[in-house]
Every structure is written in structure tokens, then in C-alpha cells.
Design a protein that fits this description.
The chain has 255 residues and is mainly α. 70% of the residues lie in helices and 0% in strands.
Length: 255
């Protein structure tokens, strides 16, 4: 089966990446289902605690699996059963870790709060970027270069540097997600560079300080953008990660 996939579905050497991505997505989805069942008091599942009463978050076994899978994958190369097995272990560990990304970021148990939605965003962003790698995108637009252009080291370096600076500029404008995607799709960075910066971003503080109209445009655009996407973002967050404690309390549902 693995050889058939390698020959007919994915490019040579990318089967471990496909297995890791599949394990990563499935682990996140299964983990969210289990945690929502625990929260609702349904099913045979329960929280894990040590003998001292300390709640053990699933990020702990996730770190162990990520380290094991990562070092195992490096040692086994990109081919063979070992590479695929360690890729699956790595994907499972990464899914468990990023499911509690917000906990690591805030150093607090914010799993069922609005801040906990950052975990869902981190998982979606990671899956999208790995998907881009899987279908053949290379960082900083190198995949768009011809074989002749790739032979010119100066041209390759110039392309990487220019696209890297584009990504930094977009990040300075307060558009973190666009900056990340522009690493793989430089056109995204060009769009982000042309559009007005987010208010409060380093770019806005530096270049809009003496431009009241630009500041007003930035505030107005950010307001309309956030209002337009707040609803869809919340629907997706509720569907993937479950409702927050505040939403459940407001709707009168059981936690």
C-alpha cells in the first residue's frame, strides 16, 4: 500500500509528510471530540491526574511523541517503513501539542476560553502550510523558478531575499497570517504590502504617525475587516474547537 501511494499519489520522498499531516489532523479532531465529551460528562473518558492530584495535560505526552518521532524520522531518512512510522508518531505528537498551543502561549489553562481559540488557529495554519509543502510549494517562491534559473545561485539568493523582505514588511504591517502564507505564495505578500497596515502595528506607528488620514483609514479598514470575519471565524472555531465557557454560560447550556 505504501509503495502504491508513493508511486501514484505523492512525489518521491513525500509519503512521510503525507502520513504526518494525516496523523496530525486526525489526532486534533479526535482529541477535540474526546475533550468535548469529557466536558459534557459523557462517554468513558476522563481527565488524567497524577497521584498528587496534578492534572496532566495532553501536551505532555504530545511533547514526548513529537521528540520521539522527530529524532526517529531524522535517523531513518525519507524512505522505508521506519520513516513512515516515525512520521505518524510525529504527527500525533504535534497534534496533541498544538491542540494546547494556547496553554503554552499563556502559561495558563485557557482551553475553553476565547484565548484558547489560538490553538485552533495554530492547527489550521499548520495544516494549511504543510498542505502547501505537500503539493509542491517551496518557501520564498523558489518553486516558480525554472531549472535554468535554479542553476544561477545569485538569482536564487536574490529571489529568496526579496520575498523574505516582503514577508517581513507584511508582518510589520500587523498581518501575521498573510506574512506566513507569503513565505510560500509570494503574491500574498505583495497584496499585503500594498494594503493599508493594521492600526497599532510597527508599520503604522512608524509611517502613519504624522498622517492622520492614513491612521483613520487603517482604523476603519480594521474595523470593517474584523466585523466581517468575526462571525465566520466564531462559527469555524465553535465547530472545530467547541464553544467557550462564556458562550455556554450565555446560552445556558451545560458546561
Amino acid at each position: 500500500m505504501g509503495h502504491w501511494l508513493q508511486r501514484n499519489i505523492v512525489e518521491p520522498g513525500k509519503l512521510p509528510l503525507l502520513l504526518a499531516l494525516t496523523a496530525f489532523v486526525l489526532t486534533f479532531l479526535i482529541t477535540r471530540v474526546i475533550t468535548r465529551l469529557i466536558r459534557a460528562g459523557k462517554g468513558p473518558f476522563g481527565n488524567i491526574s497524577s497521584s498528587g492530584g496534578v492534572h496532566i495535560h495532553h501536551v505532555v505526552p504530545g511533547v514526548v511523541l513529537t521528540v520521539t518521532g522527530g529524532f526517529g524520522a531524522v535517523a531513518s531518512g525519507r524512505h522505508g517503513f521506519g520513516a513512515g512510522a516515525f512520521a505518524v508518531v510525529f504527527g500525533i505528537g504535534t497534534g496533541l501539542v498544538l491542540d494546547e498551543f494556547a496553554l503554552i502561549l499563556h502559561l495558563d489553562d485557557v482551553y475553553w476560553t476565547e484565548a484558547g481559540r489560538k490553538s485552533v488557529e495554530a492547527v489550521v495554519l499548520t495544516a494549511a502550510l504543510v498542505g502547501l509543502l505537500l503539493v509542491g510549494f517551496s518557501p520564498f517562491g523558489v518553486n516558480d523558478m525554472s531549472d535554468a534559473e535554479l542553476q544561477d545561485r545569485g538569482g536564487v539568493i536574490s529571489t529568496v531575499v526579496v520575498n523574505f523582505l516582503f514577508s517581513l514588511a507584511v508582518l510589520a504591517k500587523g498581518k501575521a497570517k498573510m506574512a506566513v502564507f507569503s513565505v510560500f505564495v509570494p503574491f500574498v505578500g505583495l497584496v499585503g504590502l500594498i494594503r493599508v497596515a493594521r492600526p497599532g502595528s510597527p508599520w503604522a506607528r512608524r509611517f502613519y504617525r504624522r498622517r492622520p488620514r492614513a491612521r483613520a483609514r487603517a482604523v476603519l479598514r480594521a474595523f470593517h475587516h474584523d466585523r466581517r470575519w468575526a462571525g465566520p471565524r466564531r462559527v469555524v472555531g465553535d465547530w472545530l474547537g467547541g464553544k467557550t465557557d462564556a458562550e455556554l454560560a450565555q446560552s445556558g447550556e451545560r458546561k
